[in-house]
Design a protein that fits this description.
By secondary structure, the protein is of the alpha+beta class. A hairpin with a 7-residue loop joins strand 8 and strand 9. The structure holds 1-deoxynojirimycin and calcium ion.
């Protein structure tokens, strides 16, 4: 790993027997954790911040499938404290350096013999911008394998407020429009769930380091009390693990405002360091593709007269990419097996054989000669039994041909993953975020890494910060992306992207696929977006691989917008939210990693607004040339006026301010070029 800068070594205090309650504080003392046991000797935790109760006493433990659970009869055996302050480097990302400053409390619980006599440790980490804990089940007599029927981990939110969330356990996975409700109107939700308490405190409940375990949904038990519920498994217990093991971290980002929530690196800090070492073989990039035509229905993935992935079209798209400096060309539908009913079945897919009209060797040779990479594609139809059998061969083939990134896909209803069974030849249906599918994604990422290939799953499991450990896991979908706009007028709605920024995007990079400059999907279905918003998306929704999703010939009809898309980086030295409110609008300032330039921009909801942006973040003493792309007068997503855009070039210095009007469904993008 590059440049690990150790500012202060971890200091651990020796174990000591301790009576509950035990408290621990975040480094600045603002967040206080209390760990205790209740009258039934159930372990509990609670949290306060700046003297106010945030999480009322909430239970910890497990329901086990084969014995009395890890629920009651516990006493604290010992507690251990540590503190740490380090800085580490992201090989690519929204920022280059991340500070990890936290205080740690490890509590060892022991159950009395009448309740099973088991041992359960809970490791808590307190940061100034949040908090996390995980269970660690140590090696012990009498419990070799944990068969977890469910967790009973609770989060009892102590103050009223508003929440932004999508339902968990629904047919369409994470691809849903976010709901904004009172906290006590949440049903069962996926994480991250975002909350704004009535006193303005912002929270995001999520998890970190989801490895060999089931994804956690949060189910409202009563009032504002939520209970973890793990994605089910066809094999009985929701999770089966041999001891010793640690669960994913259960996390809460905590901030005074929206910016504090967005800028936190809590989950990344709770993941293990890079296990791949030098990953300079992955280069952040922008890409185009043979894609929007299939999504709109003009072309097909399947072979036939409308087949999109032909050698000829791929070469033409490579020519376009080379001419404009795009790093990649995505080609979907290149392989055999799409001709059947691929949705949710995928039993005919080959991941190594191309259709007769697509010459994989010829197009990859052509791409290499033009310094462009093919972006590979593996749609599985959710059939991981078929995919896993070919996985090594498929990644080896792509790796050998210089395909640096593979987009994978798991199109199937929730619970529609066809996984290898326990007996030979047997298959089982699993959830997209159950333990089996979590193991699958891990296998894909590790296999791809062997061949220096990066992955970008669609219909994925949610992101929990694993890109820190496996930096070839570069992006994923995991929310409603641009594609929905091809399928209906205003399909994603103007609030969608300014909500994603504060919800889905807190988990990690998204392959949203911006850049539909025509502002229309199939049958001229209009997007809930102005033209400037399409550029603002490159600042609002981060990914190290950013698509320009529209047809190449459409992109070329917009030379000024195309010029911005070509310039905007996909890799940043730093990122700040300089204006925004959850679900309403979001304006970022991001500093290029490769130059001294800054970029500003973002997205708005349906309410027009005028902002005063302050360029406080710029380097002192430099005069920047700002090229502004903003909503034109009278622009609105509601009518043809969505195409109205205005341009401006001005000089700005640190501390200057700029008045920006955002249209309904609008956005803006500004390139701030430092003096050369
Ligand atoms: C759904 C994905 O989101 C989309 O990008 C892809 O083109 C199709 N599945 C086919 O794999
Ligand atoms: Ca999708």
């Amino acid at each position: 790993m590059r440049n690990l800068l150790l500012l202060a070594a971890a200091v651990a205090a020796p174990a000591a027997a301790q009576e509950a309650p035990i408290t621990a504080a975040s480094p600045d003392g603002s967040i206080i954790l209390t760990v205790a046991t209740d009258n039934d000797q159930r372990p509990t935790w609670s949290l306060s911040r700046k003297g106010k109760l945030l999480i009322a006493p909430s239970k910890l433990g497990f329901i086990l499938a084969d014995r009395i659970g890890l629920q009651r009869g516990f006493a604290v055996e010992s507690a251990e404290r540590a503190k740490s302050d380090t800085r580490w480097e992201l090989p690519w990302g929204e920022r280059r350096f991340v500070r990890d400053q936290h205080n740690e409390l490890l509590v060892r619980f022991r159950q009395n013999d009448s309740w099973g006599g088991h041992r359960m440790n809970v490791r808590f980490r307190l940061f100034d911008d949040g908090f996390g804990f995980r269970y660690e089940l140590p090696e012990q007599d009498g419990l070799k394998t944990a068969k977890i029927a469910d967790e009973i981990t609770e989060f009892d939110i102590a103050a009223k407020g508003t929440a932004w969330w999508i339902p968990g356990g629904e047919w369409n996975r994470y691809e849903q429009v976010y709901q904004e409700t009172a906290i006590d109107a949440i049903a069962t939700a996926h994480t991250p769930i975002t909350m704004r308490l009535d006193d303005g405190t912002h929270l995001s409940l999520h998890e970190a380091a989801l490895v060999d375990y089931s994804g956690m949904w949060l189910k409202r038990a009563e009032g504002q009390k939520f209970r973890a519920t793990l994605a089910p498994s066809s094999r009985g217990p929701r999770v089966v693990r041999d001891l010793p093991f640690a669960t994913p971290w259960r996390t809460i980002r905590i901030a005074d405002d929206a910016a504090g929530l967005v800028e936190s690196d809590l989950e990344l800090n709770l993941n293990e360091p890079n296990k791949l070492g030098d990953v300079s073989w992955f280069k952040p990039m922008k890409y185009v593709g043979i894609w929007w035509g299939m999504i709109r229905g003009d072309w097909s993935w399947a072979e036939g007269a409308k087949h999109g992935a032909t050698t000829e079209r791929t070469k033409a798209t490579i020519d376009f990419a080379a001419k404009h400096g795009f790093g990649g060309v995505l080609v979907e539908g290149w392989n055999k097996g799409w001709n059947g009913n691929w949705f949710g079945h995928g039993d005919a897919y080959s991941f190594t054989e191309a259709t007769p009209d697509f010459d994989l060797k010829a197009v990859t040779d052509y791409a290499r000669a033009k310094r462009v990479q093919l972006v590979g594609h593996h749609e599985t139809g959710g059939n991981i039994a078929v995919y896993e059998a070919q996985l090594d061969d498929a990644m080896k083939l792509y790796g050998g041909l210089g395909v640096g990134t593979v987009k994978t896909g798991y199109v199937a209803d929730a619970g529609g993953i066809i996984a290898p069974g326990d007996a030979p030849g047997e298959t089982r249906m699993e959830w997209h975020d159950g333990q089996r599918q979590v193991q699958h994604h891990q296998k894909v990422v590790e296999t791809a890494a062997k061949y220096h290939v990066a992955v970008n799953p669609h219909e994925p499991v949610k992101d929990t910060g694993l890109r820190r450990t496996w930096p070839n896991w570069v992006a994923r979908e995991g929310a409603r992306g641009m594609e929905y706009n091809a399928w209906g007028a205003f399909a994603n709605g103007p609030e969608h992207e300014p909500t994603l920024v504060y919800t889905r995007m807190l988990s990690g990079p998204m392959d949203f696929t911006p850049g539909v400059l025509s502002l229309e999907g199939a049958n001229k279905a209009p997007l809930a977006s102005t033209l400037a918003k399409q550029l603002g998306l490159y600042l609002a929704i981060y990914s190290p691989i950013q698509m320009a999703a529209d047809f190449p010939e459409t992109l070329e009809k917009f030379p000024r917008e195309l010029a911005f898309i070509k310039q905007v980086p996909a890799d940043w030295a730093d990122s700040k939210l300089i204006a925004g409110a959850v679900g309403d609008y979001a304006i970022f300032a991001r500093k290029d990693r490769a130059s001294a330039d800054w970029y500003v921009g973002g997205v708005n909801d349906a309410t027009p607004r005028t902002l005063t942006l302050r360029f406080d973040f710029l380097d002192a003493g430099k005069t920047y040339t700002a090229t502004v792309y903003k909503d034109g007068e009278g622009a609105t997503y509601l009518t043809e006026a969505r195409h109205r855009i205005a341009y401006e070039t001005i000089k700005v210095k640190k501390g200057d301010s700029y008045t920006l009007w955002l249209a309904p469904g609008g956005g803006a993008a500004i390139r701030l070029a430092a003096p050369r």
